[in-house]
Amino acid sequence: MVCVAILSWGEAAAQLDQAITDKDLVDPWSRAKAVVLSLAGPIDTSVAHQQREQLDRDLSRLEDELAALQSQQETVAIRIVSNPAFVYDTSVSSREMSTQVAEIEASFDSLLGDLMVRQRPDVVAMQASLAALRRILEDKNRLERDVVRALGSGSKNEIQALASRWWAGAQSVEEARGAVADMRRRLAVPASDDRRN
Questions:
Q1: Which of 19, 27, 111, 193 could, after both became Cys, cross-link 145 (CB 3.0–4.6 A)?
Q2: pLDDT tens for each residue of 64-93
Q3: Number of structural domains, the chain?
Q4: Contact residues for 95 (Cβ-Cβ < 8 A; gap 6+)
Q5: How far is CA 42 from CA 10, 36, 37, 165, in A?
Q6: Is 0.90 topped by the overall pTM?
Q7: Residue 125 covered by a domain
Q8: 28 within some domain
Q9: Rounded distance, CA 121 to CA 26, Å?
């Protein structure tokens, strides 16, 4: 019982000491997925054929950018557990991901502007969450601090926990990308129907 309490305390302390938290990595993409899913229904019925083409371009770019960020985060997770020298590359990786998030922010802004929903509270909250993640990643010391602490601990569990956090972040990006891809498919169906009529 005492052992379990000590382990639980250790895990809680490690979580409190995270420079980049689970919430930082997951929240923007959970919000993005919810926003995209909320837009799918109205788009099916209200978007003209010409606007569909522009939206398809916006969504295609966004899907590609999300895929690139997902891949980068998966690479970070893998390198944390497999390459101790990754500690020397954390600042580069963090900067690259910050740039990727900035591109995604801009693409979402363009898409949401086309749909005239920028002022919706859920959209404002999503954009704020994305901006917060971008700023966190701009601070290259945060990722470095987490990696140095995990590797320096010599604890396999702590190293794996950090890698798992980044992998979970990548999976949440994938879920947002899936919602974007589904939105593209839904936009394409009526457009095809229009061409047949």
A1: 19
A2: 999 999 999 999 999 999 999 999 999 999
A3: 1
A4: 137, 138, 140
A5: 48, 11, 10, 34
A6: no
A7: yes
A8: no
A9: 19
